[in-house]
Amino acid sequence: MSSTPSIPVVDVSPAFGDDPAALAACVAQLRHALTEVGFLQVVGHRVDPAVVDAAYAAMDRIAEMPEAERRALVRPRASSRGLFEEIDERGRVLNRALQFMKYDDLAAAEADDAVGGHPDYFVPNVWPEQLPGFRTTWKAYDAATRSLASTLMGLFALAMGLPRHFFAEPFSKDVTLFSVNLYPPQPVDDDYHEEVILNPHADSGGLTVLHQRGSYEGLQVRDAAAGWVTVPLREDAFVINIGHLMSRWTNGRFPATVHRVVAGPDTSAQRQSIAMFFLPNIDQVVAPVETMVGAEGARYLPITAYDWQEQFMKEYVLVNSYAEPVG
């Protein structure tokens, strides 16, 4: 399979300007991409490349840590905090990921009045405090990509026939999660075929903002007609995809598209990615909006972000874990 232009690329710079015609054209492109694919790449996003470079440099520092220090960061995968390693049945590390949340701990969430009656959700982040500036680097990346996500949600609202500010309140105390992923080189057999190193799944939240780098193109999106479609590597672009909660808001009209990651074609192939999962306020009730419900009626019952995320994580960890994380 080769890279294909079927993953739409949308220039979102009109979102930052004052040209109504350009904005309308941008929204129309987004609507088409979200309806037909559920995946796209955005350029013209105004995220400083230096912020992205600093984030990848911080990732490299994790890889360079002594093994004992890195092991101290390991937490159970279901917590979505700290370091975990995806281990296959042969004992190979398929993915090493550091995960953290917008709020460092329960106290930070309480200070922002974001707890919403669910203190158990706010598990403390696990930071490598021995790495100076590490947390500051990620807070800068957090701010930049959440700003982009908020801008995109405004465009999505317009694409849904809603006021641009519709999602401002539902995401005013967002509980966004980050996953910083390193897919190390894998052994390759003589009869190489695309080996899946992150199982097929769809994401849970409002939208996902992903940046990717590497020596090969490993992210693939499932298309009903074309099978698995490879997402090209573009340094100037963020990959955007719809999560289940946004799909519920749209009554399924914007699909949460299934995707996976495959290993590279040789033993030097390596991939890195930074995923930001933009999640609404923890007590936000999500239900199909009137503008997206046709004669068929609402396909989904209302559910809170907390209840959905709890359900999703149980299913996701069960489906995607090859083994318990080490540590």
Automatic annotation (TrEMBL):
Domain Fe2OG dioxygenase: 172-280
Biological process (GO), any one: antibiotic biosynthetic process
Pfam (any one): 2OG-FeII_Oxy
Keywords assigned: Antibiotic biosynthesis, Iron, Metal-binding, Oxidoreductase
GO molecular function: metal ion binding; oxidoreductase activity
Record InterPro entries: DIOX_N, IPNS-like_FE2OG_OXY, IPNS-like_sf, Iron_ascorbate_oxido_reductase, Oxoglu/Fe-dep_dioxygenase_dom
Pathway info: Antibiotic biosynthesis
Protein family: Belongs to the iron/ascorbate-dependent oxidoreductase family.
Name of the protein described by the UniProt record: Isopenicillin N synthase
Classification of source organism: Bacteria, Bacillati, Actinomycetota, Actinomycetes, Geodermatophilales
